[in-house]
User: Fold this.
Amino acid sequence: MKPNLIAAAEIDRIDTWAKYSSTMCGGCVSSCCTLPVEVKIKDLIRIGIVDEFERGEPAKNIAKRLQKEGIVERYNQKSEIFTLQRMSNNDCLYLDRKSRLCTIYEKRPDTCRNHPKIGPRPGYCAYVPKTPERKVADNTLYIF
Assistant:
């Protein structure tokens, strides 16, 4: 039986995204972890960036502190939504570079917990398959 091949999505073109199936995650490069992550104060508390005592502070003040620390990229005062800072390659701050797994999985924000049920294209994900690596007899690494 031949495996079903899924074309790689272009992150900025949601029409190329694949219908989501939980079996896709293990074979993906974690492309969803390169999308902007919007969080609320309760997410920041769960992650451990903000403590429970700060909840009473104006969110604008918390945002300023987190922007200075390089944790938050921006803050929308009207919606009270913070956008987490990303690495220069657009990876989430909490995505491990080698394993491509979330380093705060148990504490991850609601945005991540609800993806792809909620997102730019509900029920679809920006699936990009991992590149297969093969070694030949002389241990030369080839990427196909």
Summary: Residues 33 and 92 are 6 Å apart (CA to CA). Confidence is low (pLDDT under 50) at residues 139-144.
